[in-house]
Amino acid sequence: MTYALTxxxxxxxxxxxxxxxxxxxxxGEALLTRRLILxxxxxxxxxxxxxxxxxxxxxxxCISAWVAADEQDxxxxxxxxxxxxxxxxxxxxxxxxxxxxxQACVPGGLGFAVGELSNALGAMAAEHGVIVFDDMHTxxxxxxxxxxxxxxxxxxxxxxxxxxxxxxxxxxxARMRARRELAEFxxxxxxxTPRETxxxxxxxxxxxxxxxxxxxxxxxxxxxxxxxxxxxxxxGATESPAEQRLSQRHLFDYLAxxxxxxxxxxxxxxxMRCSVLVELSAERCAKVSGNPRAAEMLxxxxxxxxxxxxxxxxxxxxxxxxxxxxxxxxxxxxxRPDEVPKLLRLAAEDEHDTARKLGYLLRATAWREAEDMLVxxxxxxxxxxxxxKVDSLLKRFPEGPQAESPRLAYVRGLLAFGELSPExxxxxxxAALKFEREGDLxxxxxxxxxxxxxxxxxxxxxxxxxxxxxxxxxxPDLETDAARLASRYWGAVVSGPAxxxxxxxxxxxxxxxxxxTPALWFRFLPYMFGNYVTPAFPELVRRVVxxxxxxxxxxxxxxxxxxxxxxxxxxxxxxxxxESRALTLQLEADEKWAGRPRHARVGSWIxxxxxxxxxxxxxxxxxxxxxxxxxxxxxRLELVxxxxxxxxxxxxxxxxxxxxxxxxxxxxxxxxxxFPPLLEAKLALHEQRVEDALHLLRECVKTxxxxxxxxxxxxxxSALALAEIRAGRPQxxxxxxEPLVARTRRTGLMCGVLMCGPRVLAELVQAxxxxxxxxxxxxxxxxxxxxxxxxxxxxxxxxxxxxxxDSKVLTPREMEVLExxxxxxxxxxxxxxLDLSPHTVKRHVARILDxxxxxxxxxxxxxxxxxxxx
Length: 870
What we know:
Elements: H1 21-33, E1 36-40, H2 47-56, E2 62-68, H3 75-85, H4 100-105, H5 110-122, E3 128-134, H6 142-154, E4 159-165, H7 173-178, E5 182-185, H8 187-190, H9 194-203, H10 210-220, H11 224-234, H12 241-244, H13 248-261, H14 265-274, E6 280-281, H15 282-289, H16 294-304, E7 308-312, E8 317-320, H17 322-335, H18 340-349, H19 354-363, H20 367-383, H21 387-394, H22 399-404, H23 406-418, H24 423-438, H25 441-457, H26 461-470, H27 478-495, H28 498-515, H29 518-524, H30 537-552, H31 557-573, H32 577-594, H33 602-615, H34 618-625, H35 635-648, H36 652-662, H37 675-686, H38 690-700, H39 712-726, H40 730-747, H41 751-754, H42 758-766, H43 775-793, H44 812-822, H45 827-834, H46 838-852, H47 857-869
Parallel strand pairs: 1-4, 1-5, 2-3, 3-4
Antiparallel strand pairs: 6-8, 7-8
């Protein structure tokens, strides 16, 4: 999500500020000693000016960050702004900071996000830090208040929060007052004193007699905005009886009308039309106002100090004072109401702040343009892991468009896809019907194809097949075609045969290689957790991994993680267990760094289960299975993998429990449909009910090779062989095993065999095969068992220890990054020097701190210098 960088830059005031020594002394002291500073007063009392000036006067060993809140801010956007405002100081993040807004919005995630932020703040190299939240009264999202409450509880002792607002924020102020952690500055503290009013008169070239000062303060009670306007209108020399009875707000409007009335018509129109803009730059003001002299006029406005603050020193960017902007907007609506929608549309055209752009369009009631914009940005935002932010944008639409728009139904469907929710099909079917009513057949077909894809993923194969049949003659469309191929691939994975799955996969990969954006790769990337093993399987997976990583680059981390997960699966299928395990451990660390939600880690979860099955590691299986947070919409996956893994480590109580739960589920069309009979058979074999096991397994083996996934065929054939051996029929046992041995020798892909577990493989080697089994087949089975034993030896690879006396704890690249840290380079300089992205540098810094068990960049630099001495 993009937003205007001026939101995180401390405003400057080019025309000289009046010195306010008493206020500055008290505010400056509070900023260095209190946990929370509150500046609460109506508009026009100089809250922003006081804070921005005081930040410039902080001691050299202090750092500060600024966030200008606005009505577009919800928790994700607000937190993103805060994180980016700290970027210049290179906080030593231990998780990807861009993941924290998403983390903060999931149930129970706010404490985690605030904890990570507080840890990073505490580890920064600064004696004291100040974070300013300006204009907090504009925020309506109650989650922001909860965030601030937790931040106040957890923020390090050397940090201060400063909040400016028109109304007191709902924070635990009484407790903070009692602890003397709070400093408050209200209207009485912020109003101009006689001395400051005198300085203002002198600055404006007016007479500063005591009578004049007394009259001005009597009329305004030290209200700074009112003082400035009175001086602008008439030098404070006159007042009418009507003025004396006006409230502050109405006095401002009264006087501002006097100011506006004295301007020429081009100036009046310029100011009124530009009031729809949150920020004023020459290019944008020229476009909205239609006045080619916009640059000159902005310079004049800034020179006169006409209720503006300066936001950007590189390109003159001004912000009108809220009171003045609201007044001008009111005048615009009163005098030229028909122009407002057009002006708002013009303001939206080149606005790069996503939420602000949407706000302009919604205010203009430009529903179609707003919906099109959301449809355009949603795929890339979801590919970046920003589903919470998409949801926030979606919720800003009124009920009418929400209910009627096919585009908003389409966005809801994309969000459901990100959650692996069956609602995907519902929303996409709704979108398709509404697109068709509008006559947009291309989008209707696309929504239908995505509905079919959702059906294929969610076991509704009949629905998927029915929808795909209606799209047979659809004209080419990249996204529709990708969804159709992905649906057919998953349908073939479930129903077979293997050759069909391979064909659909090859075509899907070719399509994505030719024109797939990162968003398309992310949505349609095929998960390779144990799907069909054909001779072309390794080559196809390598193409998937290479294409996805190429599309992801340095910036699309979720896509990177999916691709690397497929790579780890391929290593496991090739029997390279130790390499797969090492890559998986790195993948788990990267997913933790990226802050991926649990439901997005299902692929790596299944991979961890498969590796534990290969090792026969009962403890690891129980540990992985104990975390229930992965399975929001995937109960069958959880149960079947739990049962399959339990059967490998002889946990028969769990197998019985799983079977009992599965009996109440409709498994038709599911990826896991073939497994319950296999689990029943393995349980029967354990209980010495050999004939029951044989009956079940002989039915399973009829189709196991055609619908092989997650090692199903190997598990069926190995169990059937052992059952036949126990029944005294070695010839029948070899008939069951021969296709498996031949295929494994031919392809070299043996993950399914290894997932049978060490006990089963050892029993196969030791079985009384007699003369039925050729020696080369026995050698192949001994090879399986040997790999299984080797995998058990690699069950718990040693993790690097920070106590190591040399640099072996870090990779060569991490040592390069550490050397640059020790030289005082920022993340941006390190990225430039080593040709890395800043995101990659942040991840390296996090790994360095984790592996060395250090808290800060300074401690890491000291470690490196000590290493050099040794």
